[in-house]
């Protein structure tokens, strides 16, 4: 019991430290979103801001595992879509409130993440990536097989929102996102994050030092799956519908691209990049016929120019003040 209490106190201390040491730029971005929503009052603007927050959640949850271990998870839609569908099913068929459905979906995603992590422990590099794709593909197919429950190709619609106002839904998703980033940052600054980071350099050396890297990877999968599940639930209850695109491989690839462009292993970097690029993609709807070509070309150009990600470029890493402003204290 004393050991459990000590771990609890340590966890609370890390959360408090994460709140204080979180990126000032992220707090400013949150304030900016609140001000824009308050002064605009435009339905479309607030819907776009909700989408920006959700994709930032997707990228941050991916980065806490893959960004630290350098093992690319190309099946992140497995957790996002799985939790989103579960939250939608619980609400649509069992009339369970979103406030319970979202945490239940996230918890199930975390449990499944434990299983996926255990099954892929010995895999590295492309073999790990292919295995995660397979899990996502299986769930994508199941959404069509069990069409009476999932709605098949059309998905499920008529799902309850968090609240009856889009503005308060926006504030709800923003609050969930900020809490998620604080928790992810606290995890990254713990000894779990330190061990995960060590595996990307020399996992064999870490194991030779007596560290059970398998345990830490499984925990990383659980944490990543849980917060991806939160993002999936947020998507379901803000868009009031889910469809197989939430399970598609294209979503996983997009999340990997956004996180890589933002800067792996920083959490806030991928969140910023995902949010800004989602905003850019929505702005391109004014030229819908060229939107996909321009957006994809822009992503490729960013990957080519900044191969290590925007948050890991030289002008950021060399400036201690700039890095602290953008990313907070080192994680």
Automatic annotation (TrEMBL):
Chain segments annotated as coiled-coil in the UniProt record = none
Predominant place of localization: membrane
Q: Where in the cell is it found?
A: Cell membrane
Which molecular function term from Gene Ontology is one that the record holds?
Answer: branched-chain amino acid transmembrane transporter activity
Q: Which UniProt keywords apply?
A: Cell membrane, Membrane, Transmembrane, Transmembrane helix
One Pfam family name is: BPD_transp_2
Q: Which residues cross the membrane?
A: 12-37, 43-62, 74-94, 100-121, 128-150, 170-188, 218-236, 242-260, 267-286, 292-316
Q: Name one GO cellular component term.
A: plasma membrane
Q: How does it sit in the membrane?
A: Multi-pass membrane protein
UniProt KW ATP-binding keyword: no
Q: What is this protein called?
A: Branched-chain amino acid ABC transporter permease
* Organism encoding this protein: Microvirga aerophila
């Amino acid at each position: 019991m004393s050991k459990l209490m000590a771990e609890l106190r340590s966890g609370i201390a890390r959360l408090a430290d994460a709140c204080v040491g979180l990126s000032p730029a992220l707090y400013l971005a949150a304030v900016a979103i609140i001000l824009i929503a308050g002064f605009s009052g435009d339905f479309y603007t607030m819907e776009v801001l909700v989408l920006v927050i959700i994709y930032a959640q997707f990228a941050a949850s991916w980065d806490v595992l893959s960004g630290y271990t350098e093992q690319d998870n190309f099946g992140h839609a497995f957790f996002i879509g799985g939790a989103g569908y579960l939250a939608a099913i619980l609400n649509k068929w069992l009339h369970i409130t979103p406030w319970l459905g979202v945490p239940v979906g996230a918890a199930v995603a975390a449990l499944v993440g434990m299983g996926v992590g255990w099954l892929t422990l010995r895999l590295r590099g492309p073999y790990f990536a292919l295995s995660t794709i397979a899990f996502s593909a299986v769930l994508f197919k199941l959404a069509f097989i069990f069409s009476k429950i999932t709605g098949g190709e059309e998905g499920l619609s008529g799902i309850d929102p968090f609240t009856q106002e889009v503005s308060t839904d926006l504030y709800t998703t923003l609050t969930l996102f900020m809490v998620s980033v604080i928790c992810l940052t606290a995890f990254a600054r713990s000894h779990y994050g330190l061990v995960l980071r060590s595996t990307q350099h020399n996992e064999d050396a870490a194991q030779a030092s007596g560290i059970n890297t398998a345990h830490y990877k499984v925990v990383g999968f659980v944490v990543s799956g849980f917060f991806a599940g939160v993002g999936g639930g947020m998507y379901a209850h803000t868009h009031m519908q889910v469809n197989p695109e939430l399970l598609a491989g294209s979503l996983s690839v997009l999340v990997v691209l956004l996180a890589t462009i933002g800067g792996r292993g920083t959490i806030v970097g991928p969140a910023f990049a995902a949010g800004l690029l989602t905003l850019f993609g929505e702005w391109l709807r004014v030229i819908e016929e060229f939107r996909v070509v321009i957006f994809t070309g822009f992503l490729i150009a960013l990957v080519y120019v900044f191969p290590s990600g925007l948050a890991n470029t030289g002008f950021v890493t060399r400036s201690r003040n700039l890095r602290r402003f953008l990313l907070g204290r080192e994680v």
